Hints:
By secondary structure, the protein is of the alpha/beta class. It contains six helices and seven strands; from the N terminus they run H-H-E-E-E-H-E-H-E-H-E-E-H.
Amino acid sequence: MEMNRRSVRRCPWMAVALAASCVCLAAFPTALFQKKIAKPLAPDFTVKDSTGADLRLSSYKGKVVLLNFWATYCVPCRTEIPWFIEFDKTYRDKGFAVVGISLDEDGWSVIKPYLAEKKINYRIGLGGEELVKLYGGLDALPETYLIDREGRIAAHHVGMAPRAEYEKEIVQVLGK
């Protein structure tokens, strides 16, 4: 049956039903109708940190981890680093850790002086192509994952996100 004005006039109950369904849909958030999707596990990896020790993501299980892929030449990365230093200081006692993975091709020769200059207080590892593939390839730097206490990805940002957004997500995941 084709719906037009004439058919609505002939069937006023249909108009009422249509209006009622629109009101119902508007009254309930769409999230109620969306299928819940399990958060994916963050891929585990082991890289060397700035001291030469193994840095293994799975060793942080039970903590909320901000995993940041960055490079010394990346301007947005350099903007975020002071925020991450502050987050690490503020939330460390609540079970939070920042882990930075540098993707600098020149390796530790450029990373270590930068760490000293910026007084970075969290662990930094050196990543490579294998690690990037493990995370599905990176679209841009910085790329940041917030990982919950069970090792699942709770948030993901490609490029720089606002400081307030990071902090809101950190507080939210720490509270769970």
